Amino acid sequence: MCRACRYSKCLEAGMNPMGVQQKPEASLMLAKMNDAYRNLLATRITVLRGRSLFPRAIDYREAIEQGIKDVPLVANWVSQCFGKDFRELKEKNVLFENFYTRFCQLEITFTSHLKKTPDLIQLPSGDYIDMENLDRFYKDEQQMGKEEIERLFKPFYTMQKRSLILPMISLNLDHFEFLALCTLILWDTSLEGLSKETVLLSAKVKDQVMKELAAHLKNSIKMAAIVNLLPAVERCVRKFQEDMEMTQIFDIYKSSKQFYDLVNGNFFQNGEMLAAINEKTLVHWREGERPQELSLPLQSPDTVAYIHLSPTGFHAIVSTKLGQNFYIHVKSNTVHHLKKLKCLVTAVGWNPDYSKETEVTGPILMGSVKGSVIEMNVGSSGMMTCLKELIGQVALVSEQRAAGGTVAATAAITDIQLFQLTDDDATSPKPKKWLTIIAQMARLIVLSTELDPPAPPVKIGGFTSSASLQAGLMNLNLAEAPPTTTFHTLFQSPLSHTITASKFSEKFKNGYLTMHPMIDPKRYAWISPDGISIGRVNVYAERIQDVLEEEFNIEHRLIEGRLEPPTGIALTDYHILLAYSTRLLALSLLPPHNVALEDAWNQELGPSIGFQTDTTTEFYWLYTSTVAMKYGTNDEARYIWKTYLDRGDYVKALQIARMRKEIEPDALEMVLRRQADFYIQEKNYTAAAEILAQSSEPFESVVLKFLTNSSERKMGLKTLLDKKLERLTRHEDKMRRDALVMWLLNVQLEELAEMRRMKAHSQDPGYGEKLKDTTDHVQRYFMRKNVIESIQTNREAVYRMCVAHADFEMQLFFAHAVKDLRTEIEILMLREQYIEVLELLRSQRISELTYEMLPLLIEHIPKQIIVFLIQTPEISPHKLTPCISLCVKNLEMAIPAIKYLETVFKFQNPNADSKTLHNIYLHLLAKFRKERVLPYLESHGTIRSEIPYDLDFAMRTMEQFNLEEPIVFLYTVAGMYGDAVEKALGFSVDLAKRCALQIEDTEPWLLEQEDYCRQKLDEKGKKAIWLKIGQYYVARGETEQCIQLIQESDHLISIQDLLPIIPKFTKIGTLKPVIVDFLMRNKERLEKLERNMKEATDIASEIRDKQERLKNRTTVVKPSDICAHCTRPISGRPFNVHSCRHFFHRECLESAMIPFLTPEDVSRMRGLIGEEERCLGQMKAEQLAGNQKGGREKQEKYLRIATAISAILGSECPLCGDIAISLIDKPFMSDEEFAVDLNSWIL
């Protein structure tokens, strides 16, 4: 369906067009800021925390140091967030100065909220300040007490917690909301000095952010609460600035001026300049301060030759032409004469362990003009704790010599780079690995060794040196002092490597060496007589020969036809800067190394005499005898990506394009498409898919490039879908993510099915390995977090897909992964893996599924199931009825089931209701173990209320399997002695006699909650049972045995009872003794019977006489008699008279008798009353008409009807007849009538 049709259908369904959301912008500002902020957090961990592996509680000095280091990182983050618009603003410094301190306050409290630590201030490095132990944070030699510290500084931290941390926790502030607040703080239009363009841009940015925040929140109340945090931030900043001002005034816990300015909005990047303005005067220029002049005690003709400033700008070594040296503590602008150091120092290798603001330089290496290397350690007071010449001529570490030239000409050391390669703590006793690179005019020397931690420094009284006098040093002691240096073993190590130039020229006095970046360098450039050598640097290389690896060499250029050596060199990311006497050249590092910039200056400024790099600000300073010129890079990568792209170096082009994504978004798209087209031409569809997945090209057009039957393109399609899936991480991408998951799953299942077909049709064993690898790949795909979440949502669709590919293995794997136990069991059952199903059930908690599956399993593995049931006491036997009942099918299932039931009966509660289980057990015994049925029945007795089985079921089961003795026993339990005897006579007359004898021992009983009861048999019933046995004997002609029943029944039956069944022609001789005995026993009874008969005859005669007298009986009705129902006189209306002298009006008798009549009599009576009324009316009409004959007929009819009514109503007296007697236990009022009557008494 096209978009227009879909929109029309939406309108027909009632969609509100005004509610349609507008198309979001291509790049949401908060999302972009969030990505950049994540990168900032990762960078901070490395830069701010340094070598500390875990977060820790730090003191105020470390916090100040981290805050200073964090400034350029935050500035770079702001630049990434707002791009070119912010960088081109003239007032960007004003905005950032106002922003930084407020941002810090907001961020540290936001981080404390995220980590749920309201009592800890979380710093950007991951370290923290413990608010409950501020004395640890403010630890200092001043020894201020804990109570005083809390009195001075605790209010600020309490304000942070109350005003920011706790409200953030209450609001559950997230990253998008935090970044929105940062934006509002940065673009503050209330600052003074902002131009109209800046104000307009600020309003535009804040408006965009507020729209995105509103869309993100969908809750105006929370938005208002978030914006209300801004005044709290401002209050915390003001309090912090007041505390900082207090520390400056009272000189307690005082921070550096740079940090003080940073907090108050007047800060700058670290930059120091130390320059000579004449032969003996230096000027110290620090940004934001007035220049300071420093005078050196020099005598003519001695002048300043070299100034060596440490990378941090804290220390400086100044060397003169005549070999005098001075140490300058730059921070205090104090000059100290190093009188014991007598040589021209041409290079200094500063110790990276002392890169922080310290009072000492630490062990440093100095190179002289003669090629010697000296170690020195000097403090801010100018006192040297170490000064020793380590080697007289550094070239001696290698057998190579510079070709064509003297030692003096080639010996000057031009640069020393010192690196510490291990990241152990400074106090660790483990040896540290050090690397140094020493540069000379025609030689690079690389040295490496492991050094033990230095011993505590000891001040030496004199200077010890080697025998070399060329260095201009004096040995003042007769005996050589023991080594107190740190780096002396560096020049004794076998790990060394030398790179030497192949030619020599007198014009090249200095072999300049530079590296980029200065911290952890990756590239070097070295000027030698051979040209400009440029290559890679890997200070962590395993082989020392691989530390410096030349990539290419640029030959020296001729300037106006002559060879002019550079006076300095510097490296940037993509260019090399060469300083000549009258110009600066910037050469591209990419072939053909074209000149990117040529900057010539007026000759009046003088020739260039030096070129230095500020490692902190990354500015480059070129100086002549009169001026210093500052250079810096400005988006030097803007054309580099095109150069790499044209050369086919897609990796580097892509790397640069990604870095410039915010500046040139089209560049990244162009590189990605070109690279993908290249891979498609090379038929490397997998690589092309990986590239196109990063592109913003419409998904449909990208997919079309891979929709073919080619296996390579299918692999590319799979890779494309996989990469696209990895990028869909937002919650709103759920539908797209689910669609990609299902598509990718279908592709992989097709691939798996194809691999199975190939394996089935090929004998190549390699297909088996490929199938295994493919299966493992699909399973790993299943287990990915984003995939498993989508598949769980669309579980049934995945099952259908697996079934469509007949891939039950993957369906089983997936069911196991999502813990879909039912589906997993269904698949195993389908594959007849019954043991695996049982093991799966065994591993799970007992549930309804267990009881559901056991009946299906017991038919296939009965023994294992019964063992499982016995070993699992948690299983309820009462829920196993469907399972156990199936065991009646065959003996293999029945034997384990019998064993299990016997175990259950043995350990179960005697009061438990297990009738169904006993029924099944009885059925199993009747079918497979008949000999055990009767003992089982007898073991439970004959009292029906105590037997555990169902008697009716047991009787039917015994009848089914024709078990005669158990049937007889069950008949006796049921009280059916006649049936028991009759059944027993069929196979055992003795059993029949025992059953008859049991009658005397039984007691009557009544089953609870049942209608059936067994009453004690009377004498007649007992005789009938014994007579059945007699008939059995008579039928077999055993009359004597029949006569013996009289004795066996304990004379319950007599000869009189047996005579009717004895044959007529039986000899009297056999019966004579029995008859005589009977007559003797019953003599008195016969006499009593005779008397009873005479009495009965007399009573009968008396009754006949009374009946005759009653025929003539009459009842006299008096006028005063009243109706027994209404208590009114009986006369005046028709009435009925009973022999009991209860009189009733006809109507009253009807009312009194209706409740006692049957519905049929009531209906009949009402019909007769209706006929009576009609007949009475007809009779009156006939009389009025004078029709006597018709009147007599109607009168006769009326009398018949009245007689019939009287027969119904007058059969009994309703007050004293049988009807009244039968209702003696009936309540006078029903429950409803009683409730009505009771309520009538309520006042």
UniProtKB/TrEMBL annotation:
InterPro entries, sorted: NHR-like_dom_sf, Nucl_hrmn_rcpt_lig-bd, Pep3/Vps18_beta-prop, Pep3/Vps18_RING_C, Znf_hrmn_rcpt
Coiled coil: 1076-1113
One CC-aspect GO term: HOPS complex
Protein name in UniProt: Vacuolar protein sorting-associated protein 18 homolog
Membrane-protein topology: Peripheral membrane protein
Xref: Pfam families: Hormone_recep, Pep3_Vps18, VPS18_RING_C
PANTHER family hit by this protein: VACUOLAR PROTEIN SORTING-ASSOCIATED PROTEIN (PTHR23323), VACUOLAR PROTEIN SORTING-ASSOCIATED PROTEIN 18 HOMOLOG (PTHR23323:SF26)
UniProt KW keywords: Coiled coil, DNA-binding, Membrane, Metal-binding, Receptor, Transcription, Transcription regulation, Zinc, Zinc-finger
All residue ranges annotated as the NR LBD domain in the record: 25-266
Main location as per UniProt: membrane
All residue ranges annotated as the Nuclear receptor domain in the record: 1-22
One term of GO molecular function: DNA-binding transcription factor activity
GO biological process, one term: organelle fusion
Compartment list: Late endosome membrane
Segments crossing the lipid bilayer: none
Entries under PROSITE patterns matching the protein: NR_LBD, NUCLEAR_REC_DBD_2
